[in-house]
Amino acid sequence: MDFFQKYYTLSLKFLTTRPRSEKELRDYLTKKLGNVSEYDESVSLDELIQKIIDQLKKQKFLSDLDFAQWWVRQRTEFKPRGKRMIQFELKQKGIGQDIIDSVLKETQESLSDLETAKIIVRKKIEKVRGLERHEIYKKIGGLLGRRGYSWTDIKRSIDDVLGEEV
After folding, report:
1. pLDDT (tens digit, 9 = 90+) per residue, 19-36?
2. Are residues 29 and 42 in the same domain?
3. How many CA atoms lie within 13 A of 158 on its CB side?
4. Count of domains in the chain?
5. Does 68 lie in the same domain as 54?
6. Is the distance from CB of 113 to CB of 78 less than 8 angstroms?
């Protein structure tokens, strides 16, 4: 097996656990190839990594747009986050701002930050029932703040859910 094929196969295995961004795969290959001495010196490591990435893109195994859509879907369905936090996470994964904007615009039509915040508040309200109002805001508001929601959405979601119970 030649050097390209070996690391191409390794990349495919890396992509089987979950979708990846191009930056994640580039970082992974850089780490794997960092101290390898058995490869052909006529091709630089950067060129080899780019060749692998190009091949994966050509075969549609790697796409930043598909990754961003998957990431946003995961974050809205299973571990709700505010749009600011999702945007921050996608930037860390190396996704371009134009892709982030288009993917968030698509999802904005389905659920707003306020609606996802209310879902979280409804799930967590049982744990804080019986506490004073300011303690509820402190506990649930802190949770929502760490997940990237704005103070306006935090306050409105807690107010709305507490108002539903009255």
Report:
1. 999 999 999 998 988 766
2. yes
3. 23
4. 3
5. no
6. no
**95 and 49 fall within a common domain:** no
Q: Which candidate, 165, 84, 79, places its Cα nearest to that of 126?
A: 165
Which amino acid appears at position 62 of this protein? Answer: L
pTM of the model: 0.78
Does 77 share its domain with 117? no
Instruction: Provide the b/e sequence for 80-112 (b: ≥16 CB within 10 Å).
Output: bbbbebbbebbeebbbeeebbeebbeebeeeee
Would you say 126 and 63 are in contact if contact means Cβ atoms under 8 Å apart? no
Residues 120 and 139 placed together within one structural domain of the fold:
yes
Contact 140, 158 (CB under 8 A): yes
What's the CA gap between 53 and 50, in Å, rounded? Answer: 5
Residues making up the chain, counted from first to last:
166
Nearest-angstrom CA–CA distance, 134 and 3: 61
Q: CA of 104: how far to CAs of 69, 88, 95, 144, in Å?
A: 9, 12, 12, 19
- In this structure, the number of other CB atoms found within 10 A of the CB of residue 148 comes to 19
Q: Which of the four pLDDT bands, split at 50, 70 and 90, describes residue 39?
A: low
Dist. CA 91–CA 71, nearest whole Å: 12
Domain of residue 157: give its range: 113-165
